[in-house]
Amino acid sequence: MLLPVVPLWAERGGSGAFGSGATTAVLMATTVATQLAVPWMLVRFGHRWVLAAGCALLGAPTPFLALSADLAPVLLLSALRGVGFGLATVAGSALVAELVPREQHGRAAGRYGLAVGLPQLVLLAAGVALVERVGFTAVFVAAGVAPVLGALLVPAIRMSGGPVVVAAGTRARPTARAALAPVLAMLTCSIAQGGLITFLPLAVPGAGLLVPMALLTTAAGSLLGRLVAGELVDRRGWGGRLLVPGMLLSAAGMIAEVAALGTGTGALVVAGSTAVGFGFGMVQNDSLTVLFAAFGSAGYGAASAVWNIAFDAGTGAGALGLGAVADPFGYPAAFGTAAGLLLVGVVVAWARPGAAVGRS
What we know:
Layout: H1 5-12, H2 17-35, H3 38-45, H4 47-59, H5 71-99, H6 105-134, H7 136-151, H8 176-203, H9 210-236, H10 243-263, H11 266-295, H12 300-329, H13 331-351
Helix pairs in contact: 1-2, 2-5, 2-8, 2-12, 3-4, 3-12, 4-5, 4-7, 5-6, 5-12, 6-7, 6-9, 6-11, 8-9, 8-10, 8-11, 8-12, 8-13, 9-11, 10-11, 10-13, 11-12, 12-13
């Protein structure tokens, strides 16, 4: 809910596109820094404790955003929330692999995507709309309470035999070729969607329900893409084969956004956001299952960390990097840059056919 709202709050405090994008970039920077340590924490403390701590840290600082729209305190609170986000994301996606057999990873990842995507489907668009009706403070309080309540549900998770412990000295050794394509696909797609979510409310101001509708459709597209990919990976054995189509679809969506801003066509805004979401959803599911296969059962936590780091680093880079493009050149140039990066990713992935794992 807060990904498009906090940049609006920072802009209210006088920040430009670069400062507004920095709120997302700082959130993701501390998220990624935290994620580097989470595989060790999962072994040391267990999945449930790490997940609960992440939920609490993600939610508790959030209401304090309402105290000031100045950039410095907003960045500080975003950084603190990023620590919680880093803990929660890696622990959550690692549980996908720990709780089900390997042959069900695709569908399990799809169901995990459903759990993440359904709230996003409603709240990504609702955040901007709610701010206009009830104000920032109410949105910040609601977004802070929900993760704390979520932490109370963590004890219901039942790990068979307790947390998985990796033997001392055991280290996953995924090949670079197996990891390259999924990591690159995640990075480029998350740059595109991170930039879209951060800047679409700023690029199309005063558009009524158009921006909330576009944010709704990108969340819905991502959810559907993950579910479809999960079925294709498990039932058809298409692990690793959905990365290039997903990047191409996301690139087409960003190109549609450029055209929409140039022509003022609302339908293109919605169509483009849907394509970005669906393509990224395919990439999210397929890349996660490929990385699980590449790292092996001893490295599920590390695979989860790599996947989440690519996701969140790309989101932060999209917010900060595309903001740096948007400030001097405008939002169409920023969205076009994202499309270009996706097409570069497609070329690299095609040039490295061995990067995909045949079946997860």
